[in-house]
Amino acid sequence: MQQRVAAFDEMMNEVRLTDQVGDVTHANPRAHYKAFAAWLAQQPDHVLNARREEAELIFRRVGITFAVYGDNDGTERTIPFDIVPRVFPASEWALLEKGLIQRVRALNMFLHDVYHDQNILKAGIVPAEQVLNNAQFRPEMKGVQVPLDIYAHIAGIDLVRANYGDSSGQFFVLEDNLRVPSGVSYMLENRKMMMRLFPELFSQHRVAPVAHYPDLLLEALRNATPAHTSMPNVVVLTPGMYNSAYFEHAFLAQQMGVELVEGKDLFVDDDVLYMRTTQGSRRVDVIYRRVDDDFLDPESFKADSTLGASGLLRAYRAGNVAICNAIGTGVADDKSIYPYVPDMIKFYLSEEPLIANVPTYLCRKASELDHVLKNMAQLVVKEVHGAGGYGMLVGPASTQAEIEDFKLRVKANPSNYIAQPTLALSTCPTFVESGIAPRHVDLRPFVLSGNHVRMVPGGLTRVALKEGSLVVNSSQGGGTKDTWILEE
User: What is the 3-state secondary structure (H, E, C) of 51-90?
Assistant: First the structure.
């Protein structure tokens, strides 16, 4: 059963006019979409289809794929790329950028606080048990001094736009990704592909560039350099070629001009981290890690892990190496902590949040659990540690049997779930088999924290390619689009 709800249209603006026969609704392109809409209307379907096939061929040839675990048809596939971009005016993007920087600043302050003085817990703003008993809280990080007090050097903040309550087209933060956020390589490759397929569009539109992201990323990583050196050796730590985001790990290392390493390439001696090279060992100063906490150091976490380096935590605590993002950042992007981020902004910055959260029910609270169980058919219910579109239920798109089964799961472990209203995510024109049609989208901009908090003007727009679907994750059949910020 598919959900049928009204949604904000990114490209078209409905205008209600009154004439001799009554009210008539006209759909006109929004101001920032007018030139593109005129171009799109002139494009035959067979031309767009040929361009889409060309993009898929190039992506596969270059190796822009991701792994799907448990997929019987094979482990590697390309993420479907849609050739219709999502467009923002510069003024709207400026407001989003300001709100995202505000949020990431507060999240970094929260992380420093919970691993040091814990003032926000003492003030009762965030329940102490939600933090200290959280699976992502790392007691090993208590008292550890990290450069610039920054824990989340790279943050991917998921935004959705929706008609909700009395507001039309309002942006909400859906979730914060602070551990090993992925997807930025697709943002960069999508732009390169659009410029290759449709160069005329970039002569007609002043699209802000995103190609300098690797430079900003390397600068943020170097800003985390420990005090012992001014010429840091930066590496990207990957779990290996079978990881779903391996393409991105290799891509970013290549773009930054740094080494891509695996755990077997690293060792710790006298609390200093080294990498093995053909010229002998070389000291490592900064790790951009794409390995989860549990697997970073078999001496301190999972003893059977081969993905990290034994003694890495000792080297980290001694201040001899920086890890980006820091160990323990996951406690701030846990879905059970998410509802308190607006309070963090007020507590640390004495500011009102510029981008709102989605209203959220915490199933660990008896009164809110009761509401969720009674209204599950209208809600989205998620595991607090879930990701990738797994471990969740979209009530309006589920059968009664699926809802009843999910109720049993929630009752068995209420603290493991949150619930939110089913927002009608905004739609963007998308080229599908039937032609141009609206499909639901979200947006993941990337926020970099170093000496300054910075962003490139753009992000990863993900699109649910199935009609009516609200699940945009690539592992669930979603695709991606280029995201344009039009310079004024």
Answer: HHHHHHHHHHHHCCCEECCCCCCCCEECCCEEEEEEEEEH
